[in-house]
Specification:
The protein is α/β, with parallel strands linked by helices and 321 residues long. It folds into two domains: 3-126, Rossmann fold (3-Layer(aba) Sandwich); 146-320, P-loop containing nucleotide triphosphate hydrolases (Rossmann fold). 48% of the residues lie in helices and 21% in strands. It is built from 13 helices and 14 strands. The protein has helices at 12-22, 37-47, 63-73, 88-96, 108-120, 155-171, 182-194, 199-205, 213-220, 228-245, 259-265, 269-285, 302-313, and strands at 3-8, 28-34, 51-55, 78-83, 101-104, 125-126, 146-152, 175-180, 208-212, 221-222, 225-226, 253-257, 288-295, 317-320. A six-stranded parallel β-sheet has the order 2-1-3-4-5-6, with helices on both faces. The protein has a six-stranded parallel β-sheet with strand order 9-8-12-13-7-14, sandwiched between helices. A two-stranded antiparallel ribbon has the order 10-11. Strand 10 (221-222) and strand 11 form a beta hairpin.
Length: 321
Amino acid sequence: MSIRILIVDDYEDWRRTVRLLLSERPELQVISEVSDGVEAVQKAGELRPDLILLDIGLPKLNGIEAARRIRQVCPSSKIINLSQDNSLDVVQVALSTGAQGYVYKTDVQSDLLPAIEAVLRGKQFVSSSVKGYEFTDIPTAKAPHRHEVLFYSDDAVLVESFAHFIAAAIKAGNAAIVVVTRSHRDSLLQRLQAERINVDDAIQQGTFISLDAADTLSRIMVNGLPDPVRFLEGVSGLIEVASKASKGEHPRVAFCGERVGLLWAEGKTEAAIRLEQLCNDLARTHEVDILCAYELSSFHGEENDQVLQSISAEHSAVFRA
């Protein structure tokens, strides 16, 4: 029985290399090749291939986001990511979108065919060059995670909620990262002092990290959408530093912020939802608790009510105050 394969990569030489490897197995039939993520989603919906070999570093739409959309239009297709990035964080997020395999391009000669065999048998495959990855007997099982959203009525509610969220984490021996607008930063620090948190000591010890929402948002946006790799690169190191500074036996990091709220306020609904999905991926792959915030008054009218429901669906708990 033939296996119908779609190859997605923006380098023609690389696609040729992959085709050559696949030609060793006559049952592996390449039915199409495309060079960017948008085309990949379109072709997956049209052709419904058995297997998609999907590069991560694609133009227009990266491979991680493309995989997420392919899962919606063609859930029966199996996906193997091919990438020049072998960092554990990127691998974990790529697999959390629904890919069954991850091949580091340096190892493609030795790993591609075994990866295809494993994935077609319903097994998970990750190149051995990815250090620290642990296989699970149930690849699709979702770990419990806490990703909550607050729809707040005024700034005082936002500041109080963030302060309580952060203070609870620090008092428990954990750490906290907050991404807020400059207009809220000073009042948040004052509220934390009222919660009996010595902010200066926490900053010095590394258990409290404060970042500017607009600045960090600008660093992760590509073509109007948050880029998964930039998002991970920006947050994973911070979580690691904060976790190491924690005093708890099983440290967790509290992460709260306004970046999604800024995107929504700018009318970038799709970007806000994409960022929420990336936060879900983060919560599944890191020991982190997340609290997002939106101004409630900005949701009015039937269309916005539907968006509110879509945003709420991305969270483990929803609060209105």
